[in-house]
Each structure stands twice: as C-alpha cells, then as structure tokens.
Amino acid sequence: MTGAERHYRALESLYASAPVNALYESRLEIPGEGRSRITFTVTEASYHAAGAAHGTIYFKMLDDAAFYAANTFVTDRFLLTTSFNLHFTKPVRAGEVVAEGRWVSGRKRVFVAEARLVDADGDEIGRGTGTFMRSRIALSGLPGYQVKEQD
C-alpha cells in the first residue's frame, strides 16, 4: 500500500469513528486524490414534516464528501469547514443516495471542494461547494485516524 493509499484508508477509518456517523447508515470511500464518495441510506428517521429528507442530511453528506475530497491533500492536519454553499434541487424520500466529493482548488492553507448528491434513479438532488482550512489538530492525534492492518 502506498503512503497515499494508507492516508485514504485512515481517513475512511476516521469517518467511520465519528460519533455523528452512528446516526446514519453510511460509508465513505476515497478512490483517489481529490475525490470521495459517501453512500448512505435515507430513512423516515431523517424526514421533515412533509415526508421527505430534511436539509440537514443534505448538508451533512455534502459537507463530508467535499471535506474528505479536500483532506486527501493534507496528511498532517484535520481540515475545518469555514463556509459551505448549498443548493437543493429535488426532494428525496427513502432509498440509497451517493454524495460525490471533488477537490476544486487550493493546496496550502485554504481548499475549495464541491459535492453533489445523486439518488437511486441517478438524478442529482443537491449540490454544494465548501471552503476548508487547515486546523491545528494533528490527524495523527485523532484515535480514529488509523489504518487497519490486512490479515
């Protein structure tokens, strides 16, 4: 496994270890530099009063997908979201949704990344762009940032 692949697997582990992610049936995959993919399931537990997914789940998954796409470039520090612009394009009810993240620009202190949500029919249901910056939090100091050794 290359150093980059170890970093990607450790980021996937970090995502899985975050307590908030216990609230959602979701899984992060990092296929390569500047890209991420979160597959999750929308259930009635995330509905608003009108019977579709509340915008909080749109934001959470778009922000996470963009964040992890950007953090593929940073191996020493945790990034922080400094702003996020969100567009809702279609309501979604129950089913599998994919958040696809993609790095756009920046490699030093500030990073820009975007993400889109695609429903089970292949329709885009939301899109967002975020700005992220390096924090003082060392990735190596986070208990979830680890590579599980292969058997």
TrEMBL record:
Q: Which UniProt keywords apply?
A: Hydrolase
List the molecular function annotations (GO) for this entry: acyl-CoA hydrolase activity
Domain (Thioesterase): give its ranges.
51-124
Show the CDD domains listed in the entry.
PaaI_thioesterase
Pfam family of this protein, just one?
A: 4HBT
Does the keyword section mention Kinase? no
Q: Which InterPro entries match?
A: HotDog_dom_sf (IPR029069), PAAI_dom (IPR003736), Thioestr_dom (IPR006683)
Name of the molecule in the record: PaaI family thioesterase
Q: Which species does this protein come from?
A: Erythrobacter mangrovi
